[in-house]
Amino acid sequence: MVQTTTSEQIKKCCVITNGEQLQYIEVPFELTEDIINIHIKYAVKNKSKEECVVDLGIRDPYRVRGWSGGARSEIEIGSKVSTPGYLSGNLAKGTWAVILGAYKIPQGGSEVEVNIKLEKSTNNKETWLKGDLHMHSVHSDGSYTLQEIAAIALEKELDFIALTDHNTVSQNFTLPRYEDLIIIPGMELTTYKGHCNFFGINDPIKDFRAVNNEELHSKVEEARSSGAKVSINHPHDPGCPWEWTWNVNYNWVEVWNGPWRPGNEKTLDWWQEQLVNGNKITVIGGSDTHRPDPYVQHGMPTTWVKTADKSQCGIFAGIDKGHVFLSYSPEGPTMELTCGNKQMGDTVTDISQPVVVNLNRLHEGDLIKIISDRGIERTYTVPKAEKTFRKQLKISDQKFYRVEVWKYFQEVNQTLMAAMCNPLYISKEGM
């Protein structure tokens, strides 16, 4: 996908007095969620003959992001590539600041001119990216190296993966880099009463140990404060269910973990109940792969995210919006659920237009379920030789629509989930 951008120029002047010598002065600026690159250039204006040294660094809303001292007069920070000494990754929305280190300041003071260039993506065309948001490596209890995992992901043509080793972050500091694969740093907080993933930050928490609700909440809040996204993992898995309270500050819920099985079914039922009660919860999936296995494999299930920005920031923004569906593999069914210019995850207010279901890569005998807050409204069986499905749904008093595809898998002699999407919500205003 070709990235097209526009830029915003910000110029700020800062006068540093001799009394501020050996202090750190912040020059704040605001970032919106669609910024993909930051370029900082500064110049020190010294009118006297005395030595003047002002160092340079930058912080994001959560931490110091880099420091070059007096070695550089300009730096860049991007989601993938940054100037040495500065961290690439999520360019979080919020207040950032250029840090000026007042090392040596003349008696008469000095003036520093700071020029900030913010590049914004102007890609309006969204595309579906596919990936796996849950896996383990040799850095915890998995058998795959990071290089082996990346090679498998590239072979399966995944666009992104998240490395979520148990209670450790060492994998995040040795990430391999690939042009065609976004590798999201992560960690699975693994407690004796449930697991949750922290996404997007190399080192989201300093200590994983949580043995009571207060400590669990503290860990989640620490991760959120660092800029991480939080998902509750396999909450109804019989081996490691979520036994904590649900009033934690999470972003998403992993409804589909590994092969489709009863624990996933229970989470699906729980999620449906939450949706009926008016709770808008975005669900994701992850393979939870640890080692070679005939059924537990990378990209099974696959999480598909619609975004115009092929980056970690774009993926997170797409998931936050609920522009997500899941399929049993990268080759599984694909889904679109729209109403006018709205799509899955959005809220429809113009109920005069129909909801349109578009499914592809189907096979004979696949079972399609159209589901709302009323339950299963309609079912369709894919006839012979049909690989696509299109249907218009009339809105009456539904709170949402969502779609599931079920498939018979000969390998296990069972009909299991093949694909599912997040809901298209419907507003009751004007009804």
UniProtKB/TrEMBL annotation:
CDD domains: PHP_HisPPase (cd07432). InterPro entries: PHP_dom, PHP_domain, Pol/His_phosphatase_N, Pol/histidinol_Pase-like. Residues 131-193 form the Polymerase/histidinol phosphatase N-terminal domain. NCBIfam families: CehA_McbA_metalo (NF038032). This is CehA/McbA family metallohydrolase. The lineage of its organism: Bacteria, Bacillati, Bacillota, Bacilli, Bacillales.
